[in-house]
Amino acid sequence: MRKISAALFAATLFVTPAQAVEFLVGVERGDTGQSDYEVGLIKLALEKAGGGHTMKIADTGDTNQSRMLEMLSTGDADFHVTFSGIDQERFDKLATVPVPMQRGLLGHRILIVSEDSKDAVGAVKTMDDLQQISIGSGTGWPDTEILEKAGFKVESSKYENLFKMVDGGRIQGYARGVAEPYSEVEARQGEMKNLTIDEHVMIVYPFDMFLFLNKGDTERYDILLTGLKNAYEDGSFLDYFENHPRIKKVFEQAKIDDRLRFEIDNPLLPGEIAAIPDQYWHGR
Question: Which of 84, 253, 276, 280 is found 20 to 30 A from 11 (Cα to Cα)?
Answer without folding.
Answer: 84
